Amino acid sequence: MEKSAILSVLAEEVEQGRLIFPTSVNGAINTKRKLEDPDCNLDTVVKIVQAEPLLSAKVVAIANSTVFNRTGRKITDVRSAVTLIGLRTVRNLATVIIVQQLAGSQTKTDLVAQLWEHSAYVAALAQVIARRVTKQDAETAMFAGMIHEISWFYMLAREKYYPGLIDESIASSWGSDEDLEDESELDCEIVIGTGILHALSIPSAVLESIVYLWRGYLTFPPSSLGDTLLIANQLAPVKSPFVLPAGQVDGDINANIDLLTDEETLGDILKDSDDEVRSLTEAICG
User: Fold this and answer.
1) d(Cα 140, Cα 145) in Å, to the nearest integer?
2) Is the separation of the CB atoms in 145 and 132 below 8 Å?
3) Assuming Cys at both sites, which of 50, 113, 114, 216 could form a disulfide with 248, CB separation 3.0 to 4.6 Å?
4) CATH 3.30.2320 fits 3-19+108-285, yes or no
């Protein structure tokens, strides 16, 4: 079956609400729902997080990143970590665990590792760009960066039911100019991605910014959450193993680097934020 045909089948599957997740992912989705209960107070959140080893480790790691922990005092317990980073970040991390569980269910470890590291860099860079360039909410930008490749993690997980969906030749072909000419394939990818994001109750502002990234239309001067993700995606030192949208060209950012902000260049901003980006990337990947 050709790539376009596989994508059409998967898109139809998602549109019909037939999202098929591994058992470990269903458990992570259940945890996310518990944390989103409006009656879930701090004590309850701490108990839920403590019962989930992956989430506990992620919450503590994020709390020890320089983005959240300005004092450098080592955080070693869940309660202190939750108090420091806040309930919103904890709930966002519960969604990230869903992505991580999807990644852990797959056999194509090289592609998965690259995709996960790319996502971590985009998240770390997005929170810097949001604070210092586009003036968007940095925490929302970080969250969007962490989950923006969720459709590919899902498709990788479904590959065993559609042999040949993701093999070396097909994975590399996503980046060819010829493939980008078929807008129907991009539309199918967006249908799959939005279906997954809707199923996970991702806020509309985050969902729309991720679709904006997939479409690939960067505006100048950049100001939206979508622009934030596009810049972070292009600047990430580890690239996605899959195609960038048609409108994304790596040279765009370099050519317009001095137009991004009136006060300082993007290069200066990134240099100043290098420790933050490295620390947060390590925490997300850990």
Assistant:
1) 9
2) no
3) 216
4) no
